[in-house]
Structures are given as C-alpha cells and as structure tokens.
Amino acid sequence: GMEKLIVCVHKRPNALCRLICFPWAGGGTSLLAQWGKLLSNSIEVFCVRYPGRETRLNEPFAKDMTSMVNEVTSVLVKELQEKPFAFFGHSFGSYLSFAVALHLKEKYGLEPVHLFVSGAHAPNSEAILPIKTISVSDAKDEEVIEYLQTVGGTPSELLHNEDIRKHLVLTFKGDFKVLQTFSFEKAEMDIPFSCDITCFNGGDDKPYDLQGWQELTSGDTSFYELPGGHFYLLEPSNEIFLTKHITRCIENAGL
C-alpha cells in the first residue's frame, strides 16, 4: 500500500518528524513531493497520491471522503505511530487532511504536531455548504476547463493536449464529488485537537471563512495571506516562505 499511496522523493529515515502533504482536487504529487528538498533534514516529506492518476491511473476514483480517509489511515498508521507527524493540505487537500486527522484522533488517539491548511474554509463553516449543491456530473468539460484556467495551477500546455485535458476534467470531477461527501458536525463542547493550526491563503483568491479553525483546537491558530491567487503556493517566493515557515513550526513543536 505504501508504494501505491505515498511518494517520498527525499528519503530521510533518521528524520525527527514527517510532513504528510495532501494535494488539491485534480492534483498529483509532483509539486508537494519535491518539498522534501526544501525542508530541513529533520523532516521527511510524504505526499499522498490519490486514486485515478499517476501510477494509480487505472484505479477508479474514490467514491467518497470516508473511503479516502480509511485508505490513507490504514496505509500510514504504522508510520504515524513511530514518530511525530504534521499535515499540510491545499484546498481539497485541507479538507482531506482534516478528516484524516480527525479519524486518527478518534480511532487511535494520534494527533499531528501541527496542522497546516491552505486555500480552504474552516470545516465547521457554513461557507462549505454551497459546494454540496454544485452539480458536477452535469458540468460540461469546457466549463471545468474554464474554471481550471481561472483558478490557475494547471500549466496551459497541458490544457492544449486533448487526452490530458479530458483526463484532467475527469480527475477534477472525481475529486470534487468526493469533496461533496465531506461533512463535519462540530459538537458543542468538544474541541477535537490540541495542536497548533496555521492557515495560509492567497490574497487575490476568493475570501475563505477561516475563523472557525480556531474552534477546532485548544492550541494556537495563526493566519498568513500570501501574494497571489488560489495557486499562490506555486510561486517560488511563496514556496520558500511556506517551506521555511513549516520547518520552523515543526522544529518549534518541541519534538
């Protein structure tokens, strides 16, 4: 399961901590897996590869959030029990990383030392609800492509190739359907986490409802707005800021 699900480009068996990265809807592992060379030697980077892409191209897309959470958890739980870990997710990956963290806490009593989320509403926010009403199946390919061009993040040369374009649309729709099955009801008094949470977003992106993240942990919550749109993290200067900041937070977590 590990080889299928996890990409680790820079192996660091002696690292003190692992950073598990969760890509965005329609995304692969190429960018976030490379963070291994930007983070300090004390951190090993794992990037989660979702079904239906890269070496998992022939697998069907996940049916729902629960099945993705179960797959990630069952494959990684041994690794996560052996040393401290942190999560980073962007957009769809933020919701998945949160759902995985919640499951790990409830089922195994495990918790990340830090949760880094990017370009996403707080899971307890009503701002998520409209996502559920979008009819993805009916969306025309052109509409999806137009949306992908608007938010950025997909190299335009890929969109010129018809086979790649078709596959991108299918992948994005598959992930978006999974996102629509995500639900989180926050119980009145129950604060799920005690770790710090850091929220990143692009200043030119649509505004996200981030305040709710503070209700989900007894730790500190901090917010950083970086220049750029939804895919601000692809800008080299922002990538340097993110990887330096993440390294510092993890090293300060007193491992």
From TrEMBL:
Q: What is this protein called?
A: S-acyl fatty acid synthase thioesterase, medium chain
Chain ranges of the Thioesterase domain: 18-238
Family, per entry:
Belongs to the thioesterase family.
UniProt GO molecular function? fatty acyl-[ACP] hydrolase activity
EC number assigned by the record: 3.1.2.14
Give GO BP annotations, semicolon-separated.
medium-chain fatty acid biosynthetic process
Q: Which organism does this record belong to?
A: Tyrannus savana (Fork-tailed flycatcher)
Q: Does the keyword Hydrolase apply?
A: yes
Q: Which reaction does it catalyse?
A: (9Z)-octadecenoyl-[ACP] + H2O = (9Z)-octadecenoate + holo-[ACP] + H(+)
Kindly state which keywords UniProt assigns to this record, in alphabetical order: Fatty acid biosynthesis, Fatty acid metabolism, Hydrolase, Lipid biosynthesis, Lipid metabolism
Q: Name one Pfam family in it.
A: Thioesterase
EC class, as a word, reads hydrolase
- SUPFAM superfamilies associated with the record: alpha/beta-Hydrolases
- Give the domain of life: Eukaryota
